[in-house]
Amino acid sequence: MPVVNNVIYVDGVRAATPATLEETFAALRDSGGVAWLALHRPDVDEMQAVATEFNLHPLAVEDALSGMQRSKVEEYDGVTFVVLRPMRLRDGRVEAQELHLFVGPDFVISVRHGDAPNLACVRTRLEAQPDELGLGPMAILYAILDQVVDEYNPVMRHLMGAIDDVEDALFSSAHDVSLRMYALMRDVLTAQRVAHPIAGFVEELDSRVSADPNAAKLRPHYRDVLDHALRTSGQFDAFRDILASGLQLHIALVGQQQNEEMARMTQAALQQADQSKKVSAWAAILFTPTVIAGIYGMNFERMPELGWMLGYPFALLLMLTAGTSLYFIFKRQHWL
């Protein structure tokens, strides 16, 4: 991939815009200024040429080429290697990016991979303030840090709005509340992992700026970025606590709804059991006279009651007595 917008600054003013790496190296040596090399997806040959020219440590070069690094600040023989994790919103989800920076006494090298943010706006802003840009590479590093931390604000506002929406839906009967809350928790955890390390190494860089007489004027700027990073990190922590509490409340509400549903189902089962008992009891009461009537309906020649004048009333009385007895038995058992 081609080198992106290499610039040589002298006393905070753009002095040259070389088109190639070789021209950049020569212009820097001739001018004695500060070079800012912006590389986007550099190949091995390009990165090796830059490493040879500026004496970059092989381990840092390897990290910059491979990507997938955690946020960190490391010192290699007078060159500060910084890995930043910007973040942005893509389709409503929080996405972490990656930006590598090499900061030396007279150069800044930015290496972007994938869709990492373009730093053109940072360059434009710095070039409008030559006094600040004239303070050297640490001024460029400050401006990049400030831009990265500022870009956390849209993510923070998005998460705040999404959390407000899910809180409103928490007490509703929406079935996707838990899925939305877990998705938000994942976004908040991503934001935390990105934002938390920033404050630590901005504080470390602030101490280095304080020890550099040429860059001491930048200390208020670094302190401002540190304050912003701490507030942002604290806000993401608060989001996580809110979502954790919301998830616990949602689980409790779901449990309560399940208990109420089980109580309703149990009540319905008891009602069905009562109905089954009544049906069974009445079936038994009606079955007994049917059996007696069936026996008498056979008309056996030797049946004693056939020649008895009171045989028919006796059969009716027997049916009534059996049915009444069963009725009171079932009544006592609370089946009727």
Question: Could you walk me through the main structural features you see in this protein, from its secondary elements to its overall organization?
Answer:
The chain has 336 residues and is an alpha+beta fold. 62% of the residues lie in helices and 15% in strands. It has 10 helices and 9 strands. A hairpin with a 2-residue loop joins strand 6 (87-90) and strand 7 (93-96). The longest helix is centred in the C-terminal third of the chain and has 78 residues, at 219-296. The chain is rod-shaped, with a radius of gyration of 42 Å.
Main sheet record: 7 strands, mixed
What is the mean predicted local confidence, pLDDT?
82
Strand order of the largest sheet: 2-1-3-9-8-5-4
Order of helices and strands: EEHEHHEEEEEEHHHHHHH
Count of distinct strands: 9
Summary, kept brief:
The chain is an alpha+beta fold and 336 residues long. It has helices at 21-31, 44-54, 58-66, 120-127, 130-133, 137-150, 152-169, 177-211, 219-296, 311-332; strands at residues 3-10, 13-16, 34-40, 72-76, 79-84, 87-90, 93-96, 99-103, 107-112. The protein is 62% helix and 15% strand.
SSE inventory with pairings:
Layout: E1 3-10, E2 13-16, H1 21-31, E3 34-40, H2 44-54, H3 58-66, E4 72-76, E5 79-84, E6 87-90, E7 93-96, E8 99-103, E9 107-112, H4 120-127, H5 130-133, H6 137-150, H7 152-169, H8 177-211, H9 219-296, H10 311-332
Parallel strand pairs: 3-9
Antiparallel strand pairs: 1-2, 1-3, 4-5, 5-8, 6-7, 8-9
Helix pairs in contact: 4-6, 6-9, 7-8, 7-9, 8-9, 9-10
